[in-house]
Amino acid sequence: MFALIDCNNFYASCERVFKPDLNNKPIVVLSNNDGCVIARSNEAKAFIPMAAPAYKYEKIFKENNIHVFSANFALYGDMSKRVMNTIVSFAPEIEIYSIDEAFLKFDNCKFINFQEYGQKILNKVTKSTGIPVSVGFAPTKALSKVANNIAKKFGEKTKGVYVIDTEEKRIKALKWLPVGDIWGVGRKHAKKLKKIDILNAYKFTQLPDAWVKKNMSIIGLRLKKDLEGKLTLDLEKRIARKNIATTRTFEQNHTDYEPIKERVTTFAVSCAEKLRKQHSCCNSIMIFIQTNRHRKDLAQYNKNIVIELPYPTNSSIEITKFAVKGLEQIYKKGLYYKKAGVIVMNFVPENERQMSLFENSNPKHKQLMKVIDNINKNIGSQKIKLASQDLDRTWKMKQEHLSPRYTTKLDEIITVNV
Questions:
Q1: Spatial distance between the Cα atoms of 83 and 405, rounded to a whole number of angstroms
Q2: DSSP bridge partners of 70
């Protein structure tokens, strides 16, 4: 038996934990630089579509008393850890699927009353963290996702927990679920399925295996089998990421080379730090820059370049050096740039690097990076920087509606007046 625990409106719920007066009131959370809507409470969904550009909806925010927050990822990440640490005690196997979702797997579970057990999980998470969750149980991973959708959609009836434990429940659930809402079926496949009158998940499971494999690959076929109740998808072990990206929209248009170089340098350092955390080195780097696509009155330019490194590295100094070389090749004078990014790719384990006869990473950098990482970890991120970085600047994003980092910053901890 599998369970999917999913936090309800997670970003909005995190804000409500520390501002309970916002319960049952509309909330939206904006992306980096307060660009667009990335999360909505149920109360806000009637007024604001997902990914709505914030500047276009400012009037609607005010007219409908919608509370707007800048994305507070430090808070959301810490609250996620608290939720996952609470969940982990309820099952022998767990897969943290995303910041607000986790799969649990139960073996030898004949004597478990899953409706009661799910309620126990829900109550424990809510009491320990303040975050409301929905719980769905089913014989397969994909079906547990369906069960969770039902638990969340019909919260008053299910009390946040739904169990698919009979064939009748499985068929009824699949007939209810629109094909576009099937976990793993994207817009492209949903559009193709609707064209042949496959409108719900049950009809999808009635398709011939050969058709699904041909049109949706082996991944689609595995999903179909899982929805049929045939165990196909199992918990996945956490693996190191295959690429790491740091990209940002600038707070203003930049035409001069130096501020863009400083941003690319900082992005490269961030990527290198993440590489070292997962004990990997990269063999190639992509650097990109682009102008403001919303300013049609300005010349448009969008360019990237991939730099193949002469040796694998996770040194901030070396990755920055190659990133700046790439930027030099794609930068054009006279344009107004709004966004840039660095992506490190083609990883190898840190302890399995293939050495070159002619050129290799500076061995002194390994100990230097270790010292820098330890200092930044102990006294605060970004305390030690490269000379080419702005010493007085971290990201400097537009965050006009940012809430305090209640759980990770001592000077921003909540104050209680008694």
A1: 17
A2: 30
User: pLDDT digit string (tens) for 114-157?
Assistant: 999 999 999 999 999 999 999 999 999 999 999 999 999 999 99
Token readout for 200 is 């719900």
Residue with tokens 């045939």: 230
Centre a 10 Å sphere on the Cβ of residue 149 and count the other Cβ atoms it contains: 21
- Length in residues, the chain: 418
Contact 9, 155 (CB under 8 A): no
Rounded to 5, what percent of the chain is helix, strand, coil? 45, 20, 35
What angle, rounded to 10 degrees, do the helices at 364-379 and 257-277 form?
Answer: 90
| Burial status of residue 7 (CB atoms within 10 A of its CB: 0-12, 13-18, 19 or more) | buried
Separation of alpha carbons 263 and 254, rounded Å? 11
Q: How far is residue 51's CA from residue 45's CA, in Å, rounded to a whole number?
A: 12
Q: Which residues of 98-131 are buried (b: 16+ CB within 10 A; e: fewer)?
A: ebbbbbbbbeeeeeeebbebbeebbeebbeebbb
CA distance 281 to 291: 30
Q: What is the pTM of this model?
A: 0.76
* Residue 315: DSSP 8-state: -
E strand or H helix at 283: strand 280-291
Could you tell me the two tokens for 233?
A: 């998808």
Q: Return phi, psi of residue 259, to 5°.
A: -65, -30
pLDDT at 358 over 90: no
Alpha-carbon distance of 313 to 280, in angstroms, equals 8
